[in-house]
Amino acid sequence: MKDILEKFYGFLKEKNIKSYLITYKPNVLYLSKFKSSNAYVLCLEGEFFFFTDSRYIEGAKEKIKHMEVINIEGSFLEFISKFLKAKNVDSIYVDKTISYAFYEELSKHINVRFEKDPTFSLRKVKSKEEINIMKDGVKKSDAVYRRLLDFVKPGMTEKDVKDFVVCEFLKEKAQKESFDTIVATGKNSAVPHHETSFDVVENDKPLLVDMGLMWEHYATDFTRTFHIGKPSEEFLKVYEIVKDAHLFAIEKAISGNYLKDVDLAARSYIESKGYGDYFTHSTGHGVGLEIHEDPRVYKTSEDIIEEGFVFTVEPGIYLPNHFGVRLENIVYIENGLPHVMSSIPLDLVIL
Question: Within the chain, where are the H helices?
């Protein structure tokens, strides 16, 4: 953690910022390695303080050794204002993710300025420890998916399938879902973020399942589209296009390339096959403490791929009122090359 904190303060020194308050909860967790619903991190000229309330204070003192832990007494905004004045600090920088109410109240006590939280940049590059945690989470998700294939039968509802996935996640000792599991049968699969319903899983129709869990505070994200009963020729054609687009995208996920290269590899291929209008979202997104975080894998992204980047690759084709196909894996960059976390093949499964 010392290295991370030094990098954080290095960002501040470059901009001559002496005091910074971290309020965004995932960033607080990243810097402190402690989960609390009411916590903040303050950096004062390279010295770090962790603030939380009496519900968490004993646990925080036990686990946090790399910054001073302070119990919040009363209103945090009044408490931090008094704390800063005692340190002869008359202004504080914060990120624009704070609410207006927070800004308005804090401004009554101290001069508030805005600067993007450096933690967002730090989180884009994952450590080996973080990647290993995520790989463990993906192993659990893969195990649940394999059991799901044995469970699914025509006549069940989408909700039945979702409930199975969530229960199996908990059996794997996951903390929770990383997002609401998407189960989409038949034409519902043409809606990229379909809300799982009580629609019945149909025979001779595709079933799209987008699922993820939280493991040690890190998210997983995984999608497969499989088929129940005999698939149509058009479905087989579209499936192979999406599968190939997925693989072409991964080939471009190399250190030094732009993230837009990854998106355009998938997008251009899908366009060349006549389905460009039916690929309606970005090819991927960063994943870590949050299910969606930097970097974004899109056709306009100028981010250069770095060692330690972790992001999804998830091209899709969605034919309205007919069907959709999406295939998604988490990819991490190690030794300059892309590595897929999941061990589930991309080959079409027909049940």
Answer: 2-14, 25-32, 57-63, 76-86, 100-107, 119-124, 128-151, 158-171, 233-251, 259-272
Provide the β-strand partners of residue 206.
Answer: 227
- pLDDT, one tens digit per residue, over 104-137 is 999 999 999 999 999 999 999 999 999 999 999 9
CATH fit for domain 2-123, picks 3.40.350.10, 3.20.20.140, 3.30.110.40, 3.90.550.10 = 3.40.350.10
What are the pLDDT digits (tens) for 160-218? Answer: 999 999 999 999 999 999 999 999 999 999 999 999 999 999 999 999 999 999 999 99
Q: Which residue has the tokens 């039968």?
A: 153
Give CA–CA dist 223/219, Å, rounded: 14
Q: Which CATH class is domain 125-340?
A: alpha beta
**Nearest residue to 68 (alpha-carbon basis) of 37, 86, 44:** 44
The one-letter amino acid at 53: D
Burial of 155 (C-beta count, 10 Å sphere; 0-12/13-18/19+): exposed
Phi, psi for residue 232 in degrees, rounded to 5: -75, 165
φ/ψ (deg, to 5) at 348: -65, 130
pTM greater than 0.90: yes
Calculate mean pLDDT across residues 323-330.
98
